[in-house]
Each structure stands twice: as structure tokens, then as C-alpha cells.
Amino acid sequence: MVLIKNILNNFFRKYPQLVRWMADKQEIKIRPFKERDLQEVYAIERRSFPNPWPKFWFESLHLQNSADFLVASQNEDVLGYAIAKTEGKFKLWKLQVKEQGRLLKIAVKKEARHQGIGKSLLQAIIARLIERGTTDIWLEARTQNIGARKFYRAMGFEEKKIVDDYYKNGGDAIIMAKSF
Q1: Measured between alpha carbons, how far is 38 from 115 in angstroms, rounded to an integer?
Q2: 66 in the Ramachandran plot: left (φ > 0), alpha (ψ -120 to 50) or beta?
Q3: What Pfam families does its record include (predicted)?
Q4: For strand 77-87 and strand 90-92, is the pairing parallel, antiparallel, or unpaired?
């Protein structure tokens, strides 16, 4: 047993980059938000958006039955999050209108981007919305955020409408939607 331990220790000392690579390959989990995630989620929020939401909004969304709040984590470190909400279940002239989903937020730590985490989060959120009976999802993104628009188009969203002066700083938003 001591011999095996010595061999492994020597190997890991000789090849530290392999050890880092193996650590990086540990499984990323998509799971429901937990209260202990709040600080990390809020840190990602502040670094990802020019006008971050207040922390209490995350706390309140976590408690709403109509909201799905998921995080991507690796070794309990939060790498990203996504929040969606179901809206609009009502009757219109005896016609039942199904709920629709709205993607409120999605963000991934800068150092964890371009690894499929955002895609996994969005797919998981859509799956949750489908379980709730929704038939489509919509979102808004800054018109200047070309990266986000490209990501959403790659995920099957269509650009529907530009809303002038949507954001506090006067920025325009693009409404995007996807049916399933």
C-alpha cells in the first residue's frame, strides 16, 4: 500500500498539469438553487451585468413557486445560474391560454464560459418549463450583446421585436422567443 502511495505521489509531482486537468474534468451538476449559493450567484451577477439585480430579488425568486432557479456547480462551487418563471395562465373568451416561460436571468462565470455550461443551464430550464406545461419561452437581451444573441439563436430562439429604451441606461432590448 505504501509503495502504491509513493508511486502516485511521484507521478502527481512529476505531472502537475495532468492533476489540474483531471480536477477540471470533474462533473458539472445542474441542480436547484440552495440558500448557501446566494453569495456566489450574486458575485456572478455583479460581474456579468452592467445593472445587476439587487440581492433580495434572488432571495424572493427562490421562494416563488412559479420560478425555477437552477445553478451549475462543480465541487459545490457555483459556475453559473439560470432563472425562469412561468407567466400568463388565463382564459381568454373561453379559450385556455397556456402558461409561457420567461427566462429572467442566465449567467456563467467568465472563467467557465465556452464550456457548454450556459447551454446545459438553458436546456435544464426549458425542460423544467415543459414539465410545468408551457409551450414557449421568451426573453429579452441587450441589442448590443451580440454574444448573447448569437447564443440564443444557436439554441433555437428567434428575434421577434426591438424595444427602445428598455433598460435604465437607455439601452434597447431585443425580445427573443422559442416554441417547443
Answers
A1: 23
A2: alpha
A3: Acetyltransf_1
A4: unpaired
